[in-house]
Description:
The protein is of the alpha/beta class. It contains 13 helices and 6 strands.
Amino acid sequence: MSPAFLALLGPTASGKSDLAVAVAIRLDGEVVSLDSRQVYRGMDIGTAKLPLGERCGVPHHGLDLLSPDQTYSVGRFARDARGWIGDIQGRGRVPVLVGGTGFFLRALTAPLFREPPLEPTRRRALRRWLAGRELAELARWARALDPERAELAAEGGPQRLCRTLEVALLTGRPLSWWHRNMPAEVAPLTGVTVSVKLPREEVDRRIDSRVDAMFAAGLESEVRRLLASGCGAEAPGMTGLGYREMALLLAGRIDRREAVARIKRATRAYARRQATWFRNQLPPEVVEVDGLASMEERVNRVVEAWRRAFGAATLAGTGGKHFPGRGAGA
């Protein structure tokens, strides 16, 4: 089968977004975001959303879909992304997926199970109750009700913890059981997966530099506007890195120096978790790219991997008559 997409993954601040634009230009592609926070409108600085002027005319999908008080699930992403990918292919272009939310990619390559029915009234009541619990308490409940998934759920924050708990409490079986025993909703997609690799100390340096740049660019003003618009500090979008710390700053609970330190510390820890996930969950045939190489070298490496994979599939299935991705600079 021909690969349905080209995916670029890597830790935060690894230069994935710029690389995706450069690759899309070479392959005549369009970008699909694999970022669970960039779906929110008005959250640009803190999510490191690539400014419109730096997208070089390349269409981007999966950005600015919702207000921060709305929930965006992995299941919804999978449905949306399949539509975007199909539309991009229909235009004869290459879908270039990019981001650091590995679960979004996994939802395409290992589709979610068919969800059991959850009684709406009980579900709403449970969600209200869970919303009032501290993160540590949710994590304790997850360890008790679904120990197999507890660590994974905790890494995903309150939204994933609540999802884990509601399935266990409303169905009597843990979410990990449903994943193992229920059939998938749709067939998996195949693709070429690229992992951008950087030394840990370089990731840390880039994170520190990015956080400083976010503050200089107006992160405090961005969060102030969101709060003033009626978006509470506990809204799904506002629980992301940087936003929860800024909410504490604006509430007078910590000072600016402490906010900067906390954001850097939390982001470095998040990058460690990303690296662990990529190391354990990405397919063995993943293509590794040196994040310290020049942009030209990185683009050439990615383009070569895509053409090799697509060319092999095309030669096997159609005699090599169709070869997408021969865009400008091919």
